[in-house]
Amino acid sequence: MSPSRSRNQHELDDTEYGPSRTRQRRDALAVLAFATQLVEMQPARLARIELPDDVRNEIANVRRITAHIARKRQLGFLAKVMRRYDDEAFAAARAALGVNRDKLRQETAAMHRMEALRERLIAEETSDDALAELIARQSDLDRQHLRSLIRQARAEKATPNKPPRAYREIFQLLKELESEAAHEASTDAADNTQA
Asked: Which structural domains are found in the chain, ordered by start?
């Protein structure tokens, strides 16, 4: 039997007999995962999303239940109720969750950039270059304080029992600089749209 023939036969099976049990199970598990995300969503955000009334009631029921097995069973029932509807009924909810994931990815990427910059600042061989880059981006940076923190962080790294206070302070400083830069960028964007 040739591969093309088996593929054609498979396509005929899908049209004649419907989706396979594996596909049905995969779809059901996807709806269950989506239902779990809706239950875990903050109530204020969930209230702003358009959902069918019976789905919203079942989400409230799941949230009230604290026993693990009973909650799991009720979550399964919520997924069953959700499968009665077309995908269009949950388009707004999926979009809200997608925006949240994108924002979370951006925040995680920013945190990784800050951690990498902190490591470059503390490492003796890359410290000068990293400090020059940071000063070029943030001209109002307190250079003396940052250099002092870098020296303290190196001393903390050399002493194993010393708590990494300066190491954490460098991260907090970088985080504040990042949030200030993001705030300025959003202010500039708002000014450009008004002009």
From this structure: 12-85 (1.10.60), 105-181 (1.10.60.30)
